[in-house]
Amino acid sequence: QAKDDGRNTVRFFTSEMNARLQRNKEVLTDLAESLTKEHFELYYQPLFTIDQNILVGAEALIRWHHPEKGMIPPDQFIAVAEKSGLINELGDWVLAQACREIKNFLNAGITVFKVAINISPVQFRRKDLLQHMLMILAQHDVSAELIELEITEGAVMDNVDQAIETMQALHDAGFQLAMDDFGTGYSSLSYLKRFPIQKVKIDRSFISDLENDDDSKSITTAIIQMSHSLGLHVLAEGVETEEQLHYLQAEKCDYVQGYYTGRPIPASEFIKNFSESKKGKYANGVWTESTT
Ligand code: C2E
Ligand code: MG
Ligand code: MG
Ligand code: MG
């Protein structure tokens, strides 16, 4: 970190920085302890086809049940885990837990289904990432075809050639690959052509602005069209309203994820909601089975 600051920069250690460091240290100690005690849980958010008729998968989103502070969202601890390298162990737990739970989903009759997990840029750069993940899959007797890996632009842009090699190896092993939070990073659409990915996830920020910002509409439409012309599927993240959904349907987006079609929920609840009715609509928290 310090070496990025340039030669002529003098860094002052303010009390604010001190306090932040102290906080991070506490989070890190608690994280390490929670890892051994399994104080984590995966929530699952449903992913649907754009007509909402078919459940195609779920994104696994980590939750930390802190013994004193209650539930802590990932935004408040992933970055700390990344700086310390603890993210690798956390990521291992996420994959293993997803393997255990995907079997429960399949057993409950939720088929044609993939679980998407988030891969941190730190994990992505691990030399033994693929071997390591295959080992975890083998331990749980789960095939890579059932897993989609969500990678961000930040993970791939600092060494594009190396990243492409890693992505290709992962895909060859059977994993599906999605570019997460697309549009927020610094990769250009032209890079998509080189990446061996199958899906683009349009970042929530564009979707939430769809109703009152024409630029967000143009960008969303451009991402959908460009992705399709490259043979990639497109999913819209963070869909919260019917209006947003209608726009995305008109623009031929393929998949939808968001509070409108379903919030992240614990695995047991996910099974309750989705085990039997494969056909139906889930909107504003209510599941309605379709009769056709
Ligand atoms: P992400 O991968 O982009 O995940 C989507 C985030 O958007 C989730 O937040 C989800 O709860 C939230 N979301 C989904 N639909 C809506 C919506 O309609 N409206 C709004 N306002 N939000 C919506 P969450 O669970 O807090 O996760 C935040 C980020 O933390 C994730 O963003 C991902 O980058 C990271 N993360 C979560 N789980 C893991 C994990 O297991 N490993 C790693 N490395 N990162 C994770
Ligand atoms: Mg994600
Ligand atoms: Mg995302
Ligand atoms: Mg995001």
TrEMBL record:
Keyword tags: c-di-GMP, Membrane, Transmembrane, Transmembrane helix
Domain EAL as annotated: residue spans: 24-278
Entry's Gene Ontology BP terms: cellular response to nitric oxide
GO function terms (MF aspect): cyclic-guanylate-specific phosphodiesterase activity
Coiled coil: none
Record flagged with keyword Transmembrane: yes
Highest rank taxon of the organism: Bacteria
Name of the protein this chain belongs to: cyclic-guanylate-specific phosphodiesterase
Organism per entry: Colwellia psychrerythraea (strain 34H / ATCC BAA-681)
Parent-protein residues present: 628 to 919 of 921
